[in-house]
Amino acid sequence: MTSRERFLAACAAQPLDRPPLWLMRQAGRYLPEYRALKAKSSFLEMVRTPALAAEVTLQPLRRFAFDAAILFSDILVIPEALGQGYKFRDSGGIAMEYRLDTRTQIDALAPAAAVPDRLRYVADTLILLKRELAGHHALLGFGGSPWTLAAYMVEGGSSEDFARIKTLFYTDRAAFDALLEKLSAALIAYFKMQIAAGADAIQIFDSWGGVIAGADYEAASLRWIRQIIAALPREFPVILYAKGTAPHLTDQAFTGARVLSVDWTCDLAIVRRTLPANVAVQGNLDPVLMATEPAIVRREAARLLESMRGTAGHIFNLGHGITPDAKLECVEALVETVTGWKN
Ligand code: CP3
Fold it and tell me: Domains, the chain, ranges and CATH?
């Protein structure tokens, strides 16, 4: 069976001899070949140039036996396509061009219908990748959740306390809803474009889903995600990653997402037993492990695999993105442990 078939079978919660494996942020700064390319082109140049973006996407697959390739891009291309650009702060983190804080600014964003045209380079990258992968590996597209994107837009970049986006939610719900409605429409158009260009699955990153009050998670984030999934082709594999939202896993399982990607704070075997059998789970080693030692990675990966023995519907991953200080020998140890596993 090809890696792509293995990946899609796991999304459909079918039993497998071993889970498919990929890592969030698998193309990135822990790879010397990524750092070499980045010395010549900026991150945004790489994202906007299909040949470069495709090359970076493929780098981790040349080195490691991952089962899926994830498009090299960023969730912030959506705010940018709507008229709010971004850059990286020298001190780390994201700086948006301006802070979105009035209804007038929200209404002045570009129409959602402009997104596929403005992000045409993403479709071109996926088309290149589809050809290059030749059906062997799964090809993943992705985007941010409306809530997570709105947080960057309203905070004006990376944030410590998310006070501005929460204040908008509590003080001007009409403006908040107008922004999230626009983002949802933009994401629907964007994901449809990615699917048409060859994506086998789409991961929605609700990276900041865990910062809103639990009782408000539905209104702030989950309802918009559900609306997006409902607009995509029926049964198309959508993976929902939401960090810090363990109490909401059951509600997430009824959004139409085929796979829930869970962070490392959850015991994955318990999550597996709790969720409906037709919803797959993805995860969830602590990314910190990848900067320790190969023997530790082997031990912890085997422990996770053993805890999942006899279950169906598991995609092996980390609980969040791999960090720049990850060691290549730790990634290799993880790949050997997972690909050598027998259920
Ligand atoms: O998984 C992959 O390999 C695909 C590529 C990918 C990137 N960003 C590349 C990237 C994906 C899926 C993302 C998603 C993304 N971007 C998220 C959601 C996932 C998550 O981590 O929760 C978020 C919140 C962003 C926004 C963003 N982009 C942040 C917070 C940063 C880090 C800024 C910093 O201080 O370093 C980025 C930059 C970024 N996106 C890099 C990469 C490889 C590093 C850029 C570099 O090379 O300097």
Answer: 3-339 (3.20.20.210)
